[in-house]
Amino acid sequence: MSSDNLYNSKRAALDEDWLKYNKITDILTVAQDIKPRFPKSFVYKVIPIRDNESQDISKYFEETFMFIQNVLDQEDRRILVHCEMGMSRSPTVVIAYIMRSQKKSLKEAVIFVKERKSFVRPNSGFYRKLKEFESELSLKNDSDSESELLNQLGKNILID
């Protein structure tokens, strides 16, 4: 996933040549048990988020937003956001960032991210937190139905 200077890929996080070629300067890891691989070459921030429906990922939205925004506010810096599988935690953080920074609804932010990274599937707990975040931000939910949005995220998400 790329939007100017924002990237999302675990595989890229393991490839120093790719990171340097793409001029990545900062890496945000949103997972437990993943240590910085190239700490002398890049600025790292590690936030130990579990990919678990009971994990309150929203308590990290402010911290991740500030880190991403700080990087993107500087012309010569680029950021990679990643987790273990690249489907749930890092896309959730990026979706929350897009919602806040670009004032996009959850649906619009999901579409924006999926256009750049096709396999995006926040777990149902993360999805609920994104819905709450959308309300907190007072963003217009332009979704015709919740099922339409769930189709954007992937058919295997269950909301109860």
From TrEMBL:
Keywords: Hydrolase, Protein phosphatase. Its EC number is 3.1.3.48. GO terms for molecular function: MAP kinase tyrosine phosphatase activity; MAP kinase tyrosine/serine/threonine phosphatase activity; protein tyrosine/threonine phosphatase activity. Pfam families: DSPc. InterPro entries: Dual-sp_phosphatase_cat-dom, Prot-tyrosine_phosphatase-like, Tyr_Pase_AS, Tyr_Pase_dom, TYR_PHOSPHATASE_DUAL_dom. PROSITE patterns: TYR_PHOSPHATASE_1, TYR_PHOSPHATASE_2, TYR_PHOSPHATASE_DUAL. The keyword Hydrolase applies. GO terms for biological process: negative regulation of MAPK cascade. Residues 62-128 form the Tyrosine specific protein phosphatases domain. Gene3D superfamilies: Protein tyrosine phosphatase superfamily. Coiled coil: none annotated. It comes from the Eukaryota. Residues 1-139 form the Tyrosine-protein phosphatase domain. One of its GO terms (cellular component) is cytoplasm. Belongs to the protein-tyrosine phosphatase family. Non-receptor class dual specificity subfamily. This is protein-tyrosine-phosphatase. It comes from Dentiscutata erythropus.
